[in-house]
Amino acid sequence: AQKVTQAQTEISVVEKEDVTLDCVYETRDTTYYLFWYKQPPSGELVFLIRRNSFDEQNEISGRYSWNFQKSTSSFNFTITASQVVDSAVYFCALRWAAGNKLTFGGGTRVLVKP
Amino acid sequence: DVKVTQSSRYLVKRTGEKVFLECVQDMDHENMFWYRQDPGLGLRLIYFSYDVKMKEKGDIPEGYSVSREKKERFSLILESASTNQTSMYLCASSSFRGGAGQPQHFGDGTRLSIL
Lengths: 114, 115
Description:
Helix content of chain B: under 10%
Radius of gyration of chain A: 14 Å
Strand content of chain A: over 45%
Low-confidence stretches of chain A: none
Helix content of chain A: under 10%
Order of helices and strands of chain B: EEEEEEEEEEE
Shape of chain B: globular
Oligomer: heterodimer
Largest sheet of chain B: 7 strands, mixed
Number of strands of chain A: 12
Distance between the termini of chain B: 37 Å
Radius of gyration of chain B: 13 Å
């Protein structure tokens, strides 16, 4: 069975602070994909990044960066110099390579105060 | 850009009614999905479809059915709505093309209240 755990339910920061969202996953599959999605107050889930299980390179996209560590089954997400527009719920998700189904974590609500 | 359109943002229905939630995607995606989202539970898969007229149960199919008569449209049906089906419903689609691991693209969601 697959499982994704986002232990932080809510994080509150002041603008320009960095914030790191934790994601820990469980799977018996050797080939899988990990995703991060952002859900702003408007409700739509926005795809942010995909990482496959064979690619452990960290990735940076603007103020966003991702740290994938297979040894600890973690795929953490950092927002650098946070802005009010980053306020949203962020979901980590896991998918087995041969399947269609995404398993989501419970989400972390990020509140960035001005 | 992929566009997934859900027919209603907000919907209020009564217990026992038959409720239809509609979803249309414009990218010729093979896969379509219905999720419900509840506080503290994240997103849970209700049903998905990988082709026209094909469907598979997700984690919580009880009380729901689906219909996919055309590739671009995937309908979720609450046969006899109950108050415990009050939730946010999200539709998504994804492609087979480009190999495994293609991301799912989501609609804006329908916030359904059953009174």
